Amino acid sequence: MGRVPANVSGDLVRVALMEARPAGLTTRQLVTATELSAYQVQSGLRFLREVLAAQNLTPLTWTRRDGYQLSTDPADWIAYERACVRIELTRVLPRRWIVERSLSWLMRARRNARDYERLPEHSEAHITWANITLMTRRIARANGRRAAIPKLIVA
Questions:
Q1: Are residues 59 and 120 in the same domain?
Q2: Which of 52, 69, 90 is a domain's end point?
Q3: Rg (Cα) of the chain, in Å, rounded?
Q4: Does the predicted model carry a pTM greater than 0.70?
Q5: CB-CB neighbours of 29 under 10 Å
Q6: Residue 153: inside a domain
Q7: Is 71 a domain residue?
Q8: Per-residue model confidence as pLDDT tens digits over 46-68
Q9: Pair (14, 78) in one structural domain
Q10: How many CA atoms lie within 13 A of 148 on its CB side?
Q11: Residue 119 has what pLDDT?
C-alpha cells in the first residue's frame, strides 16, 4: 500500500486485533494480517492508543508472550466506535470552502434566497438558471480580457 492515513491504518489494525481476540498479535502478525508496512502498523497502533486514552477506555495492552491485545469487553468496542465516528465528524475537510463559496454565489440570486416554490422542480429550475447566468457572466468577462490583449500579427 502507498501512503495510508493514521486513522485508516488504525482501523485496519483494530479489525485484525478484534478478529484475533482473545489472543493477541505481534507486530509481524499485524503486518501480515493488514498488508501494511511495519511503520504503518506502528502508526495505526499509535492512533489506537491516542483514541483509547482520549476517551478513557481500556488501553491497548502489549505482552511479550501474546503481543498486542484489545479489551474483551464489548462496551469498550462500542465506545471506541463512537469515539471514531465523533473524530470523523469533527474533521475539517480540505475543500469544503469551495462548496460553500459556490452555494453563496447561487444564493446571490434573490429568488433562491427563500423557498417560495411549491414544486421542487421549480426550485431546481431557478438554481439551474442562476448557474447559467453565473457561467455566462464568467465567460463574457474572460472573453473581454482576451479581447483587451493586443494580438501579434506574424508575417
A1: no
A2: 90
A3: 27
A4: no
A5: 17
A6: no
A7: yes
A8: 888 888 787 777 778 788 888 88
A9: yes
A10: 6
A11: 83
User: 68 phi and psi, to 5 degrees?
Assistant: -85, 135
What pLDDT was estimated at residue 151? 54
Rounded to whole angstroms, how far apart are CA atoms 87 and 41?
A: 20
Q: What mean pLDDT value characterizes the chain? A: 79
Report in angstroms the alpha-carbon separations of 97 from 55, 88, 127, 133.
Answer: 30, 18, 19, 22
**Statement: residue 153 has pLDDT above 70:** no
Residue 149 pLDDT level (bands cut at 50, 70, 90): low
Q: Say whether 5 sits in a helix, a strand or coil.
A: coil
Same domain, 86 and 102: no
**Domain span at 136:** 96-148
Same structural domain for residues 20 and 74? yes
Between CA 67 and CA 61 the distance in angstroms is 8
The per-residue b/e assignment along 71-105, b for 16 or more CB within 10 angstroms, e otherwise, is beeeebbebbeebbeeeeeeeeeeeeeeeeeeeee
